[in-house]
Amino acid sequence: MTKYRISKTRFVDQTKTVSFTFDGKLYHGFEGDTLASALLSNGIHLVGRSFKYHRPRGIMSCGSEEPNAICQINDNTDLTEPNVRATEIELYEGLKASSQNCWPSLNFDIGGINNFISPFIPAGFYYKTFMWPKSFWKKIYEPLIRMSAGLGKSPTLPDPDIYDHKHEHCDVLVIGGGISGIISAKIAAKNNLKTILIDDKNVLGGSTIYQNNKNFLIDNKKSSEWLMKEIAELEEIKNLTIKTRTSLAAYHSYNYLLAKENISDHLPLDKKNDSIRQRLWKIRADKVIVAAGAIERPLVFNNNDRPGIILANSVKKYLDFYGVSSGLKNIIFTNNDSAYETALSLFEKGISVKIIDIRKKSTSNIVKNAEELGIQIYWNSTVVNTFGYKKVNSLEIMHLSEDGSNVKGNIIKIECDCLAISGGWTPMVHMHTQSGGKLDFREIDQVFVPNEKNENQINVGSCNGEFELEEIIKNTNNKIKKFLNVNETDFDRLSVLGSKEFEKKNIWLLPNTISEGKTKSFIDFQNDSTAKDIKLALREGFKSIEHVKRYTTTGMATDQGKLSNMHALGIIADTAGVKMGTLGTTTFRPPFTPLTFGALVGRNVGKFFEVIRKTPIHEWHIKHNAKFENVGQWKRAWYYPLNDENLHEAVQRESKAARDSAGILDASTLGKIDIQGTDASEFLNRVYTNAWSKLGIGKCRYGLMLNEDGMVYDDGVTTRLGENHYLMTTTTGGAANVLSKLEDYLQTEWPELDVYLTSVTDHYSTASICGPNSKKILKKLFPDKDFSDEAFPHMSYQSAKIDNAECRIMRISFTGELSYEINIESKYSKSLWESCIIAGEEYKITPYGTETMHLLRAEKGFIIVGQDTDGTMTPIDLQMDWIVSKKKYDFIGKRSLYRSDTIREDRKQLVGLLTDNPNEILEEGAQIVSELGQKPVQMIGHVTSSYFSPNLNKSIALAVVKGGKKMKGQKLFVPMENKNINVTVSDFIFLDKENKRINA
Amino acid sequence: MFIINCPYCGERDQSEFSCGGEAHIVRPKQPTELSDDEWAEYLFMRKNIKGVQFERWNHIHGCRKWFNMIRDTSNDKIHAVYKMGEKPPVI
Predict the structure, then answer these.
(1) Same domain (yes/no): A129, A171
(2) Residue from the list A708, A747, A889 with its beta carbon closest to the beta carbon of B65
(3) From CA A203, how far away is CA A212, in angstroms rounded?
(4) How far is CA A294 from CA A247, A461, A611, A689, B86, in A?
(5) Calpha distance A878→A885 (Å, rounded)
(6) Which residues of chain B have pLDDT under 70?
(7) Contact, A449 vs A464, CB < 8 A?
(8) Nearest-CA neighbor of B26 among A427, A749, A621, A793?
(9) Nearest CB to A254: which of B3, B31, B85?
(10) Domain carrying residue A444
(11) What sign has the CA pseudo-torsion A364, A365, A368, A369?
(12) Do residues A671 and A680 make contact, with C-beta atoms less than 8 angstroms apart?
């Protein structure tokens, strides 16, 4: 055993040695240790450097509130993780931990110079300093700030771990496995309620599980022994699930909670491999009992941040739970009775301890006990300074004046190697407020306590501001009985002996003889904000607590101010002379402790990140070397390179083939909505800009759909299959939204219409064959059909059969070529596609992808909604006036087309652009200007689509330009990084304006 | 995360629903007879109050029906749900 491992406890197995490294050096601890307790057992307090001043910092607590002891673990591996709290991570064989925020080493850190120049870096230093000269920002200031920002190192390798999500429902969820949580869970579970108890530690029992003090007896037993027995009984109850190593992350409305369970974080590296690392529980509870406990407050005095200065109850836990003494010459500095428990524990083990108390006296049992044992107590005193660079070695104390606002008398110097501080307790109200609960301020001991109004949630124990044993047991029992409607419990007649605290005193900022400007009294240890910084912020005019917080960064570090927020509030209230309760608190936001990204995303990584939709012809595309692009959730064939072709070469070949002979496109992803009902025609009249009533059965029509604000929303061809039956197609990406929008109007605005909508996107697949030889191919496929222009004109549809399977053939064109789309039930579509390829062989039918489709339609000047439009384009802007019915009384968006803004002539309008150099291809998204040289340059539009057209043998582009309609022939410029490209505004139909090819 | 009582399906998790903004804004029957200002009132103006609000919701990953909800935005308490076309219950 090391010098500091002074006793055996039932929580640490001293027969099982665990070796680990800290900053490269090998140490030993035991199974059951945390990294922090193992370091302390080796006499190591210094574990990190502070964020701003790079001051040496030591372990300060024993839980999630830890501000200082945050480490990088398993550095330089794919398992590395920054900012891990040494007080929470359980020790395992092979753990590699290293300190953060220090260079070149923890013991000698160059950034420590900040400590000496600190008078020059007050709160708001960055805001004030890095303002000028402006030119310094990019090369000097930003790199400098980036270097000093952040703590640990982010992992650079992919995370090899598996994470999981799980949904859970229960009658009662109990948050926290301390004494009040255990009482609550037992009452709930014994009354046949499905109960879950979660606790973030590996052992249940909170701080009572190591409470061996004889001043606290339950049922005439030591508190720890009584609770041990209760836990043993609890584990036998069937309808209770106990989840240890599980911390509550978020408490949302309607009792929906997220909790993170650590499954393999505590296992040795060789045992982690086959296990899920963490699981995120999504819990919906009928009733929630919060028993989250309280966090001990530090005290704020000069140099209160040295290694060896630890919260008093944490010193007790290291001693009574881990068997580790934090020091051999201990001083306890307190404003309340709870720290006396620590003193008694130390005394019992024969370790030197003295007490400094800011109160004048205390008449409680436990203090009397300490006095009887002869422990030296300095009453009415405060620490005014501490000494020791890498670990505290002595301190100075003085007497407090009558009102506590000043110090008086002589300075007494005392030697020590550990200073245990206690400023009272802060109830963990995070869960309560996250769920929407409000807080009340309790003046007597200066705490915020839950103001309970929610009938399905309750706070018990110290998170409810109950700090004394009798009170906790009695109130928890009574409240839970009422909450769960229970008449009788095991705890009704329990005898409890405690120690009542009568004298209370709190001073947020302890007085000193040294002027405030020269002291360093830390409030937020991780972000290095001091009492001085808070006061400076107030002097500079910040009043709201939310503003002071952001200006001084108090409470904004990874610990989210669990130790610091109350002191910041207290000092603001004292300085501004207002009551603390009227200030309110900053907002407690989830997560309570940092969550890994892995836990958040769970299994939704890699190929499970997003749903992937494939057409039934997908396998054929893969076999024919297609490259794919994502269109919404769909994988669409993008192009089919032959041999070593790149995208450009493949697209040029495909485009030429489609215009010269025949091309085939998988158009299955287009949205398809089946519309039926006696009012179907009227419905289409209302949702499209053009008229539908006179469309003959068997005919197709292109339609444009607007939003109510007049902007183009979607487009597509709709076919009239029967008197009361239409098939609407939508864009691939817009399908789901169009259906929702149509359903919305039908259900809410026009419920009188007899119309039924069914999405059939997945039910039918589409092969689109275009090109001058397409008709011949169709004839081969459907020998019985008459494909003459008279029998089967452009924009019409016929049903047909192939190998006895029904299909629908639409003669419609998105390329400007003679073109047929064959729709067939999806299960037959691959076979149909293969038949098309075989039939087209003699015409060298060429499969083409979306890129070629885009090029072909751009040659023809057809828009793509979402590429050439962006939600600010009306049909008039697109020069599509022809499709807007003048006769219809109303349709969605009609009234907006003559709002004062939509009739402006200088709106951006669709135009064609030709580059003066026909081989120069514009970049999509490039900005367009009308004049060069003038500054600032006014942008008048941008390029929306741009290609090299092999059929026209020149570069073509579509663009939207302010007032573009009247600019035909005008010269404009597209300024790029290294050159200006000269362009001329042209018609946006580049090919076959007379529509000869469609009817060829 | 609310639990919403769909008037057609019963209690379901909020993730099955989408919110469609303020309720009881009726599309004008004769839009062409409205001035720009009157049309803008219908098109753009929406309330965003702290307190009791009337909202449209859609059970989009369920029965796909639209319905109305009375919700207090200050504490997310849902006072009532009712079908489209029905009068809002008095709360």
Answers:
(1) no
(2) A747
(3) 16
(4) 15, 9, 44, 64, 50
(5) 15
(6) none
(7) yes
(8) A749
(9) B3
(10) 163-294+427-497
(11) negative
(12) no
Query: Per the domain annotation, does A592 fall within a domain?
Result: no
What pLDDT sits at residue A117? 65
Q: End of a domain among A389, A423, A457?
A: A423
Greatest C-alpha distance within chain A: 115
For residue A956, what pLDDT is reported?
97
Q: Which residues make Cβ contacts (< 8 Å) with residue A68, sequence separation at least 6?
A: A47, A48, A50, A57, A58, A59, A60, A305, A525, A526
* Chain A residues near residue B32 by CB distance under 8 angstroms: 889-890, 894-895
Q: Which residues 709-728 on chain A approach chain B with CB closer than 8 angstroms?
A: 709
For A841-872, give one letter per residue: b (16+ CB within 10 A) or e.
eebebbbbbbbbbbbbbbbbbbbbbbebbeee
Structure tokens at A337: 């009775």
Q: Are the C-beta atoms of A386 and A298 separated by less than 8 Å?
A: no
Contact B60/A708, CB-based, under 8 Å?
Answer: no
Helix (H) or strand (E) holding A739: helix A735-744
Spatial contact of A627 and A636, defined as CB atoms under 8 Å apart: no
A129 in the same domain as A71 = yes
Decide if A415 contacts A303 (C-beta within 8 A). no
A165 beta partners: A280
- Residue A126's pLDDT is what? 63
Alpha carbons A361 and A700: distance in angstroms, whole number = 94
The stretches in chain A having pLDDT less than 50 are none
What is the reported pLDDT for A51?
Answer: 80
Q: Are A692 and A681 spatial neighbours (Cβ–Cβ below 8 Å)?
A: yes
The DSSP secondary structure of A116-132, one letter per residue, reads HSGGGS-TTHHHHHTTS
Residue in A123, A52, A119 with CA at minimum distance from that of residue A537: A123
| Domains of chain B, first to last | 3-83 (3.30.2270.10)
pLDDT digits (tens, 9 = 90+) for B65-90: 999 999 999 989 999 999 999 999 99
Residue A905 identity (one-letter amino acid): E
**Cβ contacts (< 8 Å) between B79 and chain A: which residues?**
none
Residue A530 lies in a domain: no
In a mutational test of the B interface, the residue from A165, A169, A253 whose CB has the highest number of chain B CBs within 10 Å is: A253
Cα→Cα distances A218→A225, A461, A465, A480, A493, Å:
9, 16, 20, 19, 11
Q: What are phi and psi of A36, to 5 degrees?
A: -65, -45
Q: Where are the alpha helices (DSSP H) in A613-694?
A: 618-623, 647-660, 680-687
Taking the C-alpha atoms of residue A101 and residue A112, their distance in angstroms, rounded to an integer, is 11
Tell the residue number behind the tokens 């000047």, with chain if given: A861
Give residue A771's pLDDT. 97
Beta strands, E only, A489-596: 496-497, 522-524, 529-530
A29 and A48 in one domain?
Answer: yes
Which has the closest alpha carbon to A65: A424, A432, A555, A580?
A555
Residues of A in contact with B31 (CB under 8 A): 890, 894-895
A894: contact with B, CB 8 A cutoff: yes
Q: Which residues in chain A are contacts of B84 at CB distance < 8 A?
A: 747-748, 751
Residue A401 and residue A471 share a domain: no
Q: Model ipTM?
A: 0.98
Q: What is the pLDDT of residue A109?
A: 67
Same domain flag for A290 and A303: no
Task: Say how far residue A117 (Cα) sits from the centre of its chain.
Answer: 37
Long-range contacts of A870-876 (CB under 8 A, 24+ apart): A871/A707, A871/A711, A872/A711, A872/A908, A873/A711, A873/A712, A873/A908, A873/A910, A873/A960, A874/A706, A874/A710, A874/A711, A874/A712, A874/A902, A874/A907, A875/A689, A875/A704, A875/A706, A875/A712, A876/A902
| B32: nearest CB among A256, A740, A889 | A889
Assign residue A724 the CATH number of its domain.
3.30.1360.120
Whether A253 and chain B come into contact, CB under 8 Å, resolves to: yes
